[in-house]
Amino acid sequence: MMTGFALLNQHWKEAFLVCKHQLDQELSDHARDFKRAAHNHEQEEEALRSRLASMIQERDDMFARVLERRLKAGSINVPKVMNFLNQHQTQVVGNWPRLKALLEHLKDHQVPLDHWTTQIMVTAIDDYSAQPGPFVTLDEDDRSEEKKEEDDSGSGNGSKNAPLDFTQDPTPTATPQTPPTKRGKASSASSRKLQLRPDPYTPSGKDALDPRTSLTRTAEEARASLADHAVIWDKQRTDLQLVMRSGLDYLDAFELVSGDHLVHPRIPVRELTLMLARMMYWGRLNHTPWAKYVPSWCYKKAE
């Protein structure tokens, strides 16, 4: 009786130690993942602050250019104007120094002297019959330059791409003829089982691309590199697009994402998290060889 009790006690004690070890290991892994996720969050904040500072500087530079353009447009180069008025079959006769002095006052935003009385007559030898009538004050608010500046600044840097890939719904969305019932929605949602990890899962110690590190090429540059290949950029998988933007050409990138290789170190954390979330939802993790090497903290962030 005592022997059986001792054996049973030893069995449960060992089972308790095993469970405790597993729990301690899970707590340790969770603490490690939380620490790495927090560190990555700090890196993302630093990258966003740097990007914000760059955008602010770009805005200030643009504002300075606009002011400089307005100042140049509002100033008069008196010698240039006088030379222009004496070229191309045009000639200033009479008291031209008075005209030059008036232009200098205009440039300096000053009114003419009180004792000046000046009359300027323009004679068009090729159009004697012209009778335009008395001079009418013109509108001094010329918005053409400002509109041109707005058009230049609003041209944009390219359109956003929405590539089609395996991380999305494999079947096209059909427009329902009749609205689904609440029961049908609940049944569809409850029947889907999320795949939280690939099988097998052997996470790597390498992290995703540092948020402070920019991809080598833009989407437009990577798209242009496909000119020699009979493929369409928008039809390529998201991971392939990002790997190409990291610097690889199409064939090398295709081989990397299709084989049993580490891919996530070339992908920014934000894009990696979105891809993992979609693959977890659609149960496509086992169809992506590189998914089994992604660190666990990235999966927890995607969850």
UniProtKB/TrEMBL annotation:
Skewed-composition ranges (Low complexity): 167-176
Keyword set includes Coiled coil: yes
Assigned keywords, A-Z: Coiled coil
Coiled coil start-end: 31-58
Region (Disordered): 130-216
Presence of keyword Coiled coil: yes
Compositionally biased tracts (Acidic residues): 138-153
Superkingdom assignment: Eukaryota
Protein name: Uncharacterized protein
Protein species of origin: Phytophthora fragariae
